[in-house]
Structures are given as C-alpha cells and as structure tokens.
Amino acid sequence: MKILCYLFLSILFITGFSNCSNDFELTTGDTNKPVVYGFLSPKDTATYIRVEKAFVSEETNALELAQRPEDLFYDDIEVILSAGSNTYSLTQIDGADEGYPRDPGVFVNVPNNLYKLVLPGGQTYIDGQDYRLTIMDNAADTVITEAISTIVHAPIIQFPNEDDDFEWRSSIEGQNDVRTQWRLNNTTAAIFDLRIRFNYLEAVDGDVNNRVEKSVIFTVVKNIEPEDEDDTSISIEILATDILGGIAGAVDASGPGPRFFTNMEVIVDAGSKDLLSFINVGQANTGLTGASVPPTFSNIPNGFGLFTSRNSASVGGLTLVGEARDSLIDGRFTRQLNFR
Predict the structure, then answer these.
(1) Which among 82, 113, 172, 222 is least buried, having the fewest CB atoms inside 10 angstroms?
(2) Per-residue pLDDT at 167 exceeds 80
C-alpha cells in the first residue's frame, strides 16, 4: 500500500480561504487517477485549472514519481468548460510564465502546467449558473472525468455604505469595531472571508510634493459561516485592533514616508458549500484525537480534488475620522508608518 499526498495550493484565491491538504490513498497495483483543482469566479480576469495525475506504482517510489513530469502530467488531454450553449476550450500554459511558479516541494517545479481560460469579450460567469468541466483523453477519445460547479451568488453588502466615515466610540482602541452586514443566497454560498483594501499615498524619498498611490489588501476575519443553514444574512464586527494590526502588517515600512491615508474598501468573499466541506474535512483530523487515516473530500468523479466557485462584493470610499484617524497616525500599531 502506498499513499500519495497532494497539497492543494490556491492559485487564484489570494483572498485567502484556508489552505487545505488531503491524503489520497491508492491501493491496488499501478493506478492512475486525475487530480483536479480549480475555482470559477466572476471577479477574475482569467481562470486557471490544474489537472494532474495521482499515480502510484508498485515498482517505483512515490517520491521519485513526483519528480517525473511524464508521470505527473497528462500527455494529450483537452480541458473544456461549458454552460448552456457556450463551450470553451482551455489552453495549456506554464504557470511560472504568468506569475504562478510552483512552490518548492516533493513535486517537480518545472513545468507548472495549468489550463487557462479568458472568457470572450462581454462574457462573464453568471451567478447561480452551472458550469461543466470535462477532461478528455484525446489519444483514447474518452472522458477522463467531468465535474459541475454552480457559480456562488455574490453577497449583497448592507453595511457599511459607500463613502461612510468611521469614528471610534472610545479612546481605547480595543473597545472599538466596524460593523459589517451582508445578505447571502444560502443555496450556493456557505463560507465567507472579510478583507480590507487600504489605499494611501506615499512620499517618494521623503518628498511630500512627489506622492505615489499605493494600496494593500489584508484579511481581517476568515472562514465565517452562517449560524444556521437557513440564515440569509450575516453581521460581523471587525475589531479596530484587527484593522490597525492588518495595516501595520501589510504596509511596507521600509521607506521613510510620510504616508497619507485616502480611503478603505471592505470586501466580502463568498465560497461554495463544496469549499466549506473541503475545508472542514481538511481540519477534521487535527489534534491528538485525529484518525490514523485522514478523511478526504473530493467532488471530482473517478478522481480527486476540488472544482468549485467563489464570488465577492465590496464597498469603498470608507474613511477614518476623529480618534480613528488619530489611532492610525499615533496609535501603538501604526505610528511607525509615519502617517499624517
């Protein structure tokens, strides 16, 4: 018996739902199954799908197989996405050429084969619509696997509102928060992240007359679930200390500044029910009471992996005023950033 372990790393999910790992156990002789990983999102300019082989040989060590591109990648396949009357063929590319090099590890780093799709002009993924992923073996003229993903409905942010001002209620940073609330479609959306885009100007080499626009994005609350599966809205208070700590960790402080805050944006990311299951299964085997053989989640028929969707919504033009602005300038988290 041999076990081949795949760590699924999110190529496009820079918004940050939990990274997860699963062990896939293949037990009978030389076995070849597809490993598929991909997200569809209306917010992305391009879609990338990873398609590889989970291959176990009775004759060759799994670590050796992992370093052979011919054993990791399919030779001649077609990756197709379809919905209604529309059919799209994805193009094989090397992820490293597009800014997605493979992380060092047990698997071969070069090439980093991915399959890419840019939807034709004017087209986008539609909330609530099913999309079918088909992987064809061209040499054998057979379907290796097919999977379906429904596009998650975008959340509807009810609070804050565009261009709102935020002011602390207390002079003690830890006693303040920013309330957020959004509506959700519970037929498709099951897990959420809250992120903030922080926009500012920075003086070049200390010259306040020469300022460049900059922005950073950081996650303030991860893996938010509705309290009940029938809930259609979620309300979360973002702690002021999490906002200020996020700014301190994300802004590059190597330059002297000064820096000038312009505005913020609150982003709500929504993930599917399959993504929630994948994360929960990945976390289920942690701790001293974990099972000796980890559970796995996959929605890829006759294979392994995850084909799912995500979506997001945002409100911008948010500003810090009064004591909130003072905290940014002189507070314990961010005073070293030299904001004015």
Answers:
(1) 172
(2) yes
